[in-house]
Amino acid sequence: MLFGRKISFDENDFGSVVSACVARNSQAQRALYKQFFGYSKSICLRYTSSAEEAEEVLNEGFLKVFNNIERYDPGHPFKAWLRTIMVNTAISYYRKHKKHNEDMVSLEDAPYPRFDEDIVSQITADEILKLINEIKPVYKNVFLMYVVDGYNHREIAEMLEINEATVRSHYVRARARLQHLIKKYYPHLFPSDWAVKSFKGNEN
Predict the structure, then answer these.
(1) What pTM was computed for the model?
(2) Distance separating alpha carbons of residues 174 and 123, to the nearest angstrom
(3) What pLDDT, on a 0 to 100 scale, did the predictor assign at position 192?
């Protein structure tokens, strides 16, 4: 945390908390950290492979928040601004600590079945997130950014420093891998003729 001069603020008045954070008030920073800790950690956990990594991203993300909070526009939702910082921090962490070539696989290596939205809808969000963690990070990150955090393909391409065609390919492969994992862990959700229909569906 950053430390600065003390300034009065009201924890129930978010605007005053932000103003105090801009003034580098450590108590206001702690108040903001406490208020958005759970939300921020849930983002970090999605984009990392362990609680330890998530903690590193979380701390680095909040440091960026406090270093740049004067750039926050009060006319926009704070959570959206915070989410952008946390996602960017997680992506930067991934690029820094993971070798891209150890995650990159040829497109033929990933299963490519038909994606059935009706089947996916029968699984809880927590169950889906657990399955997503089994997807290779190179696909997982694109899927999370698009489906969960609402970035479009152009924005994802810019953030990951890849082209849009690659983003679209990774997204499709992530969906396919997710379907494969659902079939593996929840076979009872699939009708007996699903494999045949899936194969025919991919012929076109």
Answers:
(1) 0.77
(2) 17
(3) 63
> 131 with 143: CB under 8 angstroms?
no
Domains of the chain: total: 2
What is the domain extent for residue 111? 104-201
* Nearest-angstrom CA–CA distance, 173 and 84: 24
- Mean pLDDT by runs of 10 across the 204 residues of the chain is 64 94 95 97 93 96 97 95 96 78 42 60 85 91 94 94 94 90 86 50 40
Question: Cβ of 110: how many Cβ atoms within 10 Å?
Answer: 18
Task: Point out the domain boundary residue: 63, 97, 131.
Answer: 97
On whether both 111 and 78 belong to a single domain, the answer is no
In single-letter form, the type of residue at position 80 comes to A
Interhelix angle 78-97/51-68, nearest 10 degrees: 130
CA torsion through residues 74, 75, 79, 80, sign: negative
Residues 135 and 180 in one domain: yes
Amino acid, res. 12: N
143 and 82 part of one domain: no
